[in-house]
Amino acid sequence: MDLYSDVLVVGCGVAGMFAALNIDRKYKVMIISKTEACDCNTYLAQGGISKAKNKKDIDLFIEDTMKAGKEKNRLDAVRVLSEESIKNIDILMKFGMEFDKDGDDFDYTREGAHSINRIVHASDVTGKIVFETLFNQVKKRDNITIHEDTVLVDILKYEDICIGGAVIKDGDAYNIHSKFTILASGGIGGLFTNSTNRRGSTGDGIAIALRNKIKVANLNYVQFHPTALYEKDVKNRRFLISESLRGEGAKLINKNNQRFVDELLPRDIVSNSIWQEEKRTDSNFVYLDLSHMEKEFLKNRFPGIYNGCKERGIDITKQPIPVTPVQHYFMGGIDVDLNSKTSMDNLYACGEVSCTGVHGANRLASNSLLEGLVFSRRAALNINKKIGNTSMVNLKERLKIKDAQVTLDSNLKCVLEAFSKVLGEKKNELINS
Ligand SMILES: Cc1cc2nc3c(=O)[nH]c(=O)nc-3n(C[C@H](O)[C@H](O)[C@H](O)COP(=O)(O)OP(=O)(O)OC[C@H]3O[C@@H](n4cnc5c(N)ncnc54)[C@H](O)[C@@H]3O)c2cc1C
Q: Has residue 395 got a pLDDT over 90?
């Protein structure tokens, strides 16, 4: 069967839905998600979204982002991120997003490597509220449809222009023809034994890009979050203990009750210190000490973490949290320009699957949701300009279901091979390698 849509969006996280909502309402948009719509990393985000506090803060926000990224960032992209942060948070709020407030202003919080408090949040379940806000808007739009349990296997091409996607749904193979395609298929954490990500985040977009010779960048820039809950023999994703806890004063201590690092340094430095401390003290974890923090504050400000830990047998108002670094985020991805356009015509990429270069070699905390907003909107606005002059190409060939399944397997092999090559000794943490 063949389906037709002006725009095909692959992914139902912050990047996919915000892109769809910014496409001109006169065009038909089809969003597909591999599994259930809420089964995305966006839903899991805890800490919040960075934003320049005001115009005066734009330069300092750029400086903090560049420093955390080891100056490997693309400065023009970082400038766009910082300058457009205020506007995009406004748009998100117009869609109905409610952030925690301190009087009339935001209740700004802080995370590692930010010079000031500039993170807006909805307690510690920011991603869930962002997802629900966007999902509600998407459902109200007549021009947008969502197709769950629909897996992109490959893009469709005509003379090296992207003309849609080949998908598997309900055990059958389909072509979805589109004038423009946006890949917003998220990160790679599902490839790792230990990651905070959904297991389904298996770098599908990266695999498709690699196989189709679409330009990718910085595959070696993989971020390890310093503080995931340490649990023995857990096969599922690791439970994150948000950096905002450290921003609010939580301290890292070793098994001898000693502090060993400044908790608010960039993530890569804190993760490395923890690994060294674990080695030095012959332990698999260190602790996050909250003993000096008010019990009621912890329960009210961090209900997600409080409840998540309680379910796992840890009462954070009474005991320190065992934590260790695990894979968390991917700074590299499909290489895109400032409008999120890839090296292939009519194909865009945004969110974690893309590499805008804003994060450099190490992402500054809470810059990911912001990147998802800013650069997916840019993709949509750029498509709006071009789509009136673009026609649909109807590709006659269609993958048979058997071949589609073989392609899916080869996608997985392709990303595993690519990351095994670039990760060196860390490759042992990859599943299946
Ligand atoms: C536990 C946790 C906490 C975090 N906290 C924060 C935070 O506080 N602040 C912050 O800025 N960032 C945070 N992050 C990072 C941030 O949440 C993600 O980087 C961001 O949400 C990625 O959004 P996305 O839209 O690119 O991808 P996702 O939200 O991961 O969505 C990907 C979508 O693509 C779909 N998809 C994938 N492959 C296919 C396929 N082959 N076919 C069809 N569909 C496909 C999936 O089904 C899904 O709908 C956190 C991440 C985690 C895991």
A: no
CA-based angle 271:272:275, to the nearest 5? 90
Given this model, what pLDDT does residue 432 score? 58
Q: State the Cα–Cα distance between residues 105 and 180, nearest whole angstrom.
A: 39
Pocket lined around ligand 1, Cβ cut-off 6 Å? 10-16, 32-35, 39-42, 44-49, 126-127, 151-152, 184-187, 196-197, 200-201, 204, 240, 329, 351-353, 366-369, 372
Buried b / exposed e along 61-81 (16+ C-beta atoms within 10 A): bbebbbbbbeeebbeebbbbb
Q: What is the pTM of this model?
A: 0.97
Specify whether 267 is catalytic: yes
pLDDT, tens digit, for every residue of 124-140? 999 999 999 999 999 99
Q: How far is Cα 202 from Cα 353, in angstroms, rounded to an integer?
A: 10
pLDDT at position 234 over 80: yes
Q: Tell me the CA–centroid distance for residue 13 and ligand 1, in Å.
A: 6
Ligand 1 centroid – CA 163 distance (Å): 25
From first CA to last CA, the distance across the chain in angstroms is: 36
Q: Facing residues of 335 across strands?
A: 355
Which are the contacts of 328, defined by CB distance < 8 A and separation ≥ 6?
189, 195, 196, 197, 223, 224, 225, 228, 240, 267
The pLDDT assigned to 397 comes to: 87
pLDDT in tens, 401-431: 999 999 999 999 999 999 999 888 778 888 7
For the chain, how many helices (H) and strands (E)?
13, 18
